[in-house]
Amino acid sequence: MTKYVRLQRQRSILMSRLKEAPDLKHFNFTLSKNAATKLLKLLLKYRPERRTEKRDRLKAAASGSARNTGKPHIIKYGLNHITTLIEQKQAKLVIIVNDVDPVELVVWLPNLCRKM
Predict the structure, then answer these.
(1) What's the rounded Cα separation, in Å, for the pair 54 and 115?
(2) Stretch among 2-6, 13-17, 63-67 having the lowest mean pLDDT
């Protein structure tokens, strides 16, 4: 048995035997497949634009042919960036993945969202 597999098994046994704090417990629940599919479709609408798309948008804005020259709404990501957005009360929806390792990186995010 490889070392990595042994560590995975030991970790799963340890996690099942330990009593978890409520802050950690809700990271064990995931979305259903249907809800995850809907979420991914929503996220695809707001994905960051590619370089070619940005170049075309800026060229159209420079030539004056485009009516809507504003920046498109895109997904913001990254722990520091999201924390700043939450503190500035600009975050509308915060999605936290459940497989972050170590979980201490994101365990405080739900409380910060509730506070703000």
Answers:
(1) 36
(2) 63-67
Cβ atoms of residues 48 and 75 within 8 Å? yes
Task: Give per-residue pLDDT as tens, 18-52.
Answer: 777 777 777 777 889 999 999 999 999 999 889 99
**Residue 14 structure tokens:** 């340890």
Q: Which residue type does 101 have?
A: D
User: From CA 89, how far away is CA 92, in angstroms rounded?
Assistant: 8
Total residues found in the chain within this entry: 116
Select from 102, 80, 79 the least CA-distant residue to 24. Answer: 102
Q: What's the CA gap between 48 and 75, in Å, rounded?
A: 6
- pTM, entire model: 0.67
Alpha carbons within 13 A on the beta-carbon side of 101:
3
